[in-house]
Specification:
single chain; 210 residues; alpha+beta; Arc Repressor Mutant, subunit A; Umud Fragment, subunit A; 7-stranded antiparallel beta sheet; two-stranded antiparallel ribbon; 4 helices
Length: 210
């Protein structure tokens, strides 16, 4: 179902707030951030979003708003489609990272959509250092293909117990999944396969130096 402009603003604010702080905003914080004059207006938009299956809430609990998987999936699809449509930079050739070689320029264009033809491609910002030996560092961005179908040894986005997500290499060992960090100082995470949901595989790593 389509959202009104104001409903989308409310939903985007809640999702951004949860991403940043780890808990949902109060109705007062929603109203203040979006310039809604009364709590009744906030309640109206929350009820509409709940009716459209974009939000879930627990009654009689403060900060109980939860963004649904429907919204997260649509946001990822939108981001992937936008990247595939228009994000491109000049590709001018190759550069040596070993011994010195003659510089050769072959001008073309690098389309980020070339990394995946799937509209489910999305990006995540990395927090932590569990994958540093695979050259994925804190603050990097990973380009992810949203799919549950991955091979052992691939770097995946894994949801454990329906609540906590992590970036690790996946190995299936009988009825157990081993989520292997790429950091010798860290131990692997082992969970029953029944408690694991694979949400995607890493396609590329993007790093900003300033």
């Amino acid at each position: 179902m389509a959202l009104t402009r104001r409903q989308k603003e409310v939903l985007d604010f809640i999702a951004s707030f949860v991403d940043t702080k780890g808990y949902s905003p109060s109705y007062e914080e929603i109203g203040e951030a979006l310039g809604l004059a009364s709590l009744a207006s906030v309640h109206k938009h929350i009820e509409a979003l709940e009716g459209k299956s974009y939000l879930r809430r627990s009654f009689n609990q403060s900060r109980s708003l939860e963004v649904s998987s429907k919204y997260l999936q649509e946001r990822r699809q939108y981001a992937g489609a936008a990247a595939a449509r228009g994000l491109s930079v000049p590709l001018l050739g190759t550069i040596a990272a070993g011994r010195l070689v003659e510089s050769v320029v072959h001008e073309t264009t690098l389309e980020f959509g070339d990394f995946s033809a799937q509209p489910s491609t999305y990006a995540l910002k990395v927090r932590g250092e569990s994958m540093i030996d695979d050259h994925i560092c804190d603050g990097d961005y990973v380009l992810v293909e949203g799919t549950p179908n991955v091979r052992d040894g691939e770097i995946v986005v894994a949801l454990v117990g329906g609540q906590e997500s992590t970036l690790k290499r996946l190995y299936r060992e009988g009825e157990v999944a081993r989520l292997q960090p790429a950091n010798s100082a860290m131990e692997p995470i082992r969970v029953p396969l029944t408690d694991l949901q694979v949400q995607g595989r890493v396609l590329a790593v993007l790093r900003k130096f300033r």
